[in-house]
Amino acid sequence: MRxxxxxxxxxxxxxxxxxxxxxxxxxxxxxxxxxxxxTQWSRVGDLDADARRYKVxxxxxxxxxxxxxxxxxxxxxxxxxxxxxAIKAKLPFGE
Length: 95
Hints:
The strands form 2 sheets. Strands 3, 4, 6, 7, 8 and 9 form a 6-stranded antiparallel β-sheet that branches. A 3-stranded antiparallel β-sheet has the order 1-2-5, with no helix packed on it. The chain has strands at residues 2-6, 11-14, 26-35, 42-48, 53-56, 64-73, 76-77, 81-82, 87-88. The two termini are 23 Å apart. The protein contains no helices and 9 strands. The chain is mostly beta strands. The chain has one domain: Immunoglobulins (Immunoglobulin-like), CATH 2.60.40.
């Protein structure tokens, strides 16, 4: 998973297809975020199988966030893929 487009209060995350579908076609994705200073994940979106990009809004400027995505199929939910590093909500220019 990688960040795609960043703004002061939103970020668009993008990911590729899973390496394996576990024997059942992917039916959708779950997107969650977590403030870097907290342990609780919150669900921010659900997407159809053909979408692999999501704009996460309502971020607080200056806070750092982790994001994770899991694929769904008729068998259930796959493992989450989590961003390696926290991403700071800030304007995309400057240091």
